[in-house]
Amino acid sequence: MSWSGDRSKRAAETLWSWLPDVLQYINPWISSLDISAGSRGVREITDELSETNFGIICTTPENQTSTWVNFEAGALSKQVEGGYVVPFLIGMKVTDLISPLSQFQAVAGDSKSDVQKLLFDINDASGELAIPRERLERAFRRSWVEFEENIRDINALPSRDAISSTVERSEADMTEEILLIARQLDHRMAEIERCALRADGAPRRPSREIRRISEEKFIATSFTKIGWEAVLSSWEGKNVVIVAQSSGDSRRTISRDFVERIAKSLGREVVVLGESGKVIARSSLP
Hints:
The protein is an alpha/beta fold. The protein has 9 helices and 7 strands; from the N terminus they run αααβαββααααββαββ. The strands form 2 sheets. A 4-stranded mixed β-sheet has the order 4-5-6-7, with helices on one face. β1, α4 and β2 (about 85-90) form a beta-alpha-beta unit.
């Protein structure tokens, strides 16, 4: 568990004590509770980073630019196979994340479905130690109310770590992230195709279908990052038509540059429509 700042520390310590109640076989580690007095703290932290197989970054609006948080996130991402590095959000939305933390799949700490999925992911990554999903669901339902109350109290704490806890994301940051997601898409697609081979080497599913699933995930993730939702995407000839709607109270508009980046990543013309069918933005690939 990685943390920086009071609210982040409280969230990490709450997870440290709660997670073993639901998944009894796991052994969480946090610097504030697991380093003995007089020991060499930084050395112990780096040793733990080298041995962990799942990292949770307790992220708040005021600490996502913290040098230490980003150092630990980078160290975890290099060490942990399969991308099991999860920003656990306190007092913020996924769309508030900035790079480099925004490259990871985050969960909202006050979302029951998000936290449940986090537990499923930890369990799935635990190999032979994993417990049946039905048993995990029962344990989660029994313990959620208490955990939710603790997270609600932490969310209500005032921020003492920064004069301003709001970080505005630039258009350059957004478009750079689209390219990062595209690179991750290529890597993930190759991994899926490799795992989809039968013992005789024949594919279980057509590679075109695998590519389409990955592309749809890429589109959905890209729009989520700017506070929009890709309601529907369809491939019409050489074009991709995306129906999008603004999520919640997002005031961000869909820029031409954003659409061009998606088109470049997909290698197709992209047309974005509103729910009314009106064109919001259109790419123009050379």
